Amino acid sequence: MAASDRAPVIRLTLPLRLSNLSLRLIAAIVALPVLIGATHLGGWVFPALVLAASLLAAWEFGRLAEATGTAVAKPVLIAGTGLLVVSGHQLVAPALTVLLLAALMWSLYRFRRGGTGTDWLWTVGGALYTGWLPGHFVTLRAEERGLEWVLVALCSTVISDTAAYAVGRAAGRCKLAPLVSPGKTWEGAIGGLVFTTLLTPALAWLLHLPGGPLLWVLGFAISVFAQAGDLVESMLKRTAGVKDAGRLVPGHGGILDRMDSLVFVGPLVYYYVRWLISAP
């Protein structure tokens, strides 16, 4: 058979690498039912989920600190994170005391062997960042209507992150903080603010939560805090010289990369409820 008579061979090449957006969507589809289910169950399940996520975030924070050349006390960091998550507001004073003393003693031990004497700052700061701040979700869930308020915090944060990402990709031109996070734009930040401010009151209304006009303020503040939390974690990664804190969550990096916005939003919503809603 002549070469010209041969049937053409058609080769199909399937894309083996998913886009970042596709990975984000897949991760969200898998993670959101677990997160919402644990929030709904409450009891010990929700605190256990927050504790597990915080401990993983503490491990990733420790790696970031080590990348800067800091001799962070990882055992103290992880133990302190867990202690701050489970201690709640009632036992925070002794928990902080134990954490501070342990971190200072570790720093003294390292200083005698050539340490800088400032390692304890990363240890204490890391435990506060990955333990104390996320722990507000546990205390918020225990409040009256805590389930609904946690859902507002979670969903509004997702709205802010998603809207900022989508608007930034579609229309982003002006860099928001090029030295911290080159991909973020003012257009994306404003998109996140607008969508969250509009949708948070609607979500609270669907859940029959009180608040009135203050819910508009809450929505705006959630987006501000969520985006600030994202930028703070980006700053830590730039300091460490890494792109992601970890690789556990496809499309998002590590647990800390996924928690960065929530870390700031949890305390905001908790004190909003305690001071403006539950206060006599």
Characterization of this structure:
The chain is mostly helical and 280 residues long. It has one domain (20-277). The chain is built from 10 helices and 2 strands; from the N terminus they run αααααααββααα. A two-stranded antiparallel ribbon has the order 1-2. Helix 7 packs across helix 10 (255-277).
Short recap of the structure:
This protein is mostly helical and about 280 residues long. Helices cover about 70% and strands about 5% of the residues.
Topology of helices and strands:
Blueprint: H1 20-41, H2 45-67, H3 74-87, H4 92-111, H5 119-132, H6 136-141, H7 146-171, E1 175-177, E2 181-185, H8 186-206, H9 214-240, H10 255-277
Antiparallel strand pairs: 1-2
Helix pairs in contact: 2-3, 2-5, 2-9, 3-4, 3-5, 4-5, 7-8, 7-9, 7-10, 8-9, 9-10
